[in-house]
Amino acid sequence: MTAEDTRSYDVVVIGAGPVGENVADRTTAAGLSTVIVESELVGGECSYWACEPSKALLRPALLRAEVARVPGVQAGGAPLDVDAVLAHRDRMAAHWDDDGQVEWLRTAGVDLQRGHGRLDGPRRVAVSTPGGGTVHLLARHAVAVCTGSTAALPALPGLAGLRPWTSREATSATKPPGRLVVVGAGVVAAEMATAWQALGSQVVLLARGNRLLPQLEPFAGELVAERLREAGADLRFGVTVSSAVRMGGGVGVLLSDGGRLTADEILFATGRAPRTGDLGLETVGLAPGDWLTTDDTFTVTAVQGDWLYAAGDVNRRALLTHQGKYQARIAGAVIAARASGTPLDTAPWGTHAGTADLAAVPQVVFTDPEIASVGLTTAEARRTGRHVDVVDYDLGHVAGALQHDPGYRGRARALIDPDRRTVVGCHFAGPGVAELLHSATVAIAGEIPLERLWHAVPPFPTISEVWLRLLETYRDQRAAL
Ligand SMILES: Cc1cc2nc3c(=O)[nH]c(=O)nc-3n(C[C@H](O)[C@H](O)[C@H](O)COP(=O)(O)OP(=O)(O)OC[C@H]3O[C@@H](n4cnc5c(N)ncnc54)[C@H](O)[C@@H]3O)c2cc1C
Ligand SMILES: NC(=O)c1ccc[n+]([C@@H]2O[C@H](COP(=O)([O-])OP(=O)(O)OC[C@H]3O[C@@H](n4cnc5c(N)ncnc54)[C@H](O)[C@@H]3O)[C@@H](O)[C@H]2O)c1
């Protein structure tokens, strides 16, 4: 090991996705020297193959669908200009060039080390650089693993020869496939089926269960399935792929029910796996390929010494950019506090506790209609034995929703803790509900009592009026008991 190959920092961050960038920003702001290691593009999955390009594909699709339902808008039914949408997507993915994000790191005062990082024993990271060398990074205080996740593929025979689409191809493809088979029923499947069907593909979606978006309230998947079918997609439930082969220019698919399909491409949207397979986890006593379990301070629980942290997708707490960045802010504060010997505030909702991961994770699914969800679902309440009151309201009866679209279809559900009289879960499905969600997140994270929520007056005529309708419905439900 030569002197030039070895550098010491207070903090080493592995992975410069949105989460790693935020850890590094916080530790640098606290006066700790920080280096971030990145093997691909600074900005991570979210910027180039996930949130940004997918939402750029979806926004025109959703707007077109909405406009077609509003009377008097002449261009309503016109097909999308595919080239313009794809060019917009390319811009939103920064043309897969990370110069802008590298410049941001520089202004934030974070050093960048390009290459593949691996743990090399406690507080040590070895980086295989693009030039073929190795740089050894020594961390005085902390190593933060923020390596994210990758598409998990089912164990099908001949998968390598099939060359299926994963979320990466689904967000970066340069033309719509004529026929696209989408395998899965989760968020990626629902969003990408929506986007590519609107861009001209004939989508066949294969769900092994009996509904779309199974993690969410059942009405969410039902409404999305209804709209996808109206858009021309072929949705099949209780079926999956037994085998698939690439043949000529397309793929041949054998289904579990004995049926066969041919298509131009097949997308596996079948969940995520942690990017920890080649991370040197064995050098610190952990198993390669595992998710990294942390406590609420984002310290990896199975490693002694409070020096190893994991934030973002890789800890599996909530696979969402905003939630990973929340974790990053807290992990950064924890690292800085420990480095300066300041006691941690780890009480629920304390400065150094990621309590929101457990109580208030917001998510928007950008389908037609939008799905917006935060906090407990009825299925989780049942599974954990938590007693909640459930309040439902038809968003199509809200005056503001009817102004939005006279044929508005949507639903709202609030879960209420009857003893504390606070909202613990809130779920909306309908056009335009994405921007409504933060009100629910504030109500849950703030543990605002219902008595005070009555004083939060929603403006007329907006979709937010659903808050008043939910409170009224709950009041009447309780009175009827
Ligand atoms: C199609 C799709 C759409 C999505 N849309 C949304 C959305 O709308 N909203 C939302 O909140 N979330 C969305 N997500 C989820 C979101 O993309 C992730 O939650 C987010 O990217 C996680 O950030 P991260 O920093 O933990 O990981 P990543 O963004 O995956 O970044 C990890 C980084 O680490 C690097 N890396 C990995 N291993 C190493 C190593 N050994 N050495 C050096 N570098 C390494 C990678 O190259 C990468 O740059 C979407 C996901 C998908 C797949
Ligand atoms: N708008 C957003 O916030 C957004 C958008 C996209 C992705 N994401 C995040 O990315 C993560 C990954 O999304 P995802 O949709 O890939 O995963 P997911 O876990 O949401 O859904 C995976 C789906 O694949 C199915 N599946 C798994 N193995 C299968 C098999 N062998 N055959 C058939 N079906 C199979 C599952 O039943 C499930 O329906 C999610 O956790 C989500 O939070 C968020």
UniProtKB/TrEMBL annotation:
<dbReference type="InterPro" id="IPR004099">
    <property type="entry name" value="Pyr_nucl-diS_OxRdtase_dimer"/>
</dbReference>
<feature type="binding site">
    <location>
        <position position="55"/>
    </location>
    <ligand>
        <name>FAD</name>
    </ligand>
</feature>
<keyword id="KW-0285">Flavoprotein</keyword>
<feature type="binding site">
    <location>
        <begin position="184"/>
        <end position="191"/>
    </location>
    <ligand>
        <name>NAD(+)</name>
    </ligand>
</feature>
<dbReference type="Pfam" id="PF02852">
    <property type="entry name" value="Pyr_redox_dim"/>
</dbReference>
<feature type="binding site">
    <location>
        <begin position="147"/>
        <end position="149"/>
    </location>
    <ligand>
        <name>FAD</name>
    </ligand>
</feature>
<protein>
    <submittedName>
        <fullName>Dihydrolipoamide dehydrogenase</fullName>
        <ecNumber>1.8.1.4</ecNumber>
    </submittedName>
</protein>
<dbReference type="GO" id="GO:0006103">
    <property type="term" value="P:2-oxoglutarate metabolic process"/>
</dbReference>
<dbReference type="GO" id="GO:0050660">
    <property type="term" value="F:flavin adenine dinucleotide binding"/>
</dbReference>
<keyword id="KW-0520">NAD</keyword>
<dbReference type="Pfam" id="PF07992">
    <property type="entry name" value="Pyr_redox_2"/>
</dbReference>
<keyword id="KW-0560">Oxidoreductase</keyword>
<dbReference type="InterPro" id="IPR023753">
    <property type="entry name" value="FAD/NAD-binding_dom"/>
</dbReference>
<dbReference type="GO" id="GO:0004148">
    <property type="term" value="F:dihydrolipoyl dehydrogenase (NADH) activity"/>
</dbReference>
<comment type="similarity">
    <text>Belongs to the class-I pyridine nucleotide-disulfide oxidoreductase family.</text>
</comment>
<dbReference type="InterPro" id="IPR036188">
    <property type="entry name" value="FAD/NAD-bd_sf"/>
</dbReference>
<feature type="disulfide bond" description="Redox-active">
    <location>
        <begin position="46"/>
        <end position="51"/>
    </location>
</feature>
<feature type="binding site">
    <location>
        <position position="271"/>
    </location>
    <ligand>
        <name>NAD(+)</name>
    </ligand>
</feature>
<keyword id="KW-0274">FAD</keyword>
<keyword id="KW-0547">Nucleotide-binding</keyword>
<feature type="binding site">
    <location>
        <position position="117"/>
    </location>
    <ligand>
        <name>FAD</name>
    </ligand>
</feature>
<dbReference type="InterPro" id="IPR001100">
    <property type="entry name" value="Pyr_nuc-diS_OxRdtase"/>
</dbReference>
<feature type="domain" description="FAD/NAD(P)-binding">
    <location>
        <begin position="9"/>
        <end position="323"/>
    </location>
</feature>
<feature type="domain" description="Pyridine nucleotide-disulphide oxidoreductase dimerisation">
    <location>
        <begin position="361"/>
        <end position="467"/>
    </location>
</feature>
<dbReference type="InterPro" id="IPR016156">
    <property type="entry name" value="FAD/NAD-linked_Rdtase_dimer_sf"/>
</dbReference>
<dbReference type="InterPro" id="IPR050151">
    <property type="entry name" value="Class-I_Pyr_Nuc-Dis_Oxidored"/>
</dbReference>
<feature type="binding site">
    <location>
        <position position="313"/>
    </location>
    <ligand>
        <name>FAD</name>
    </ligand>
</feature>
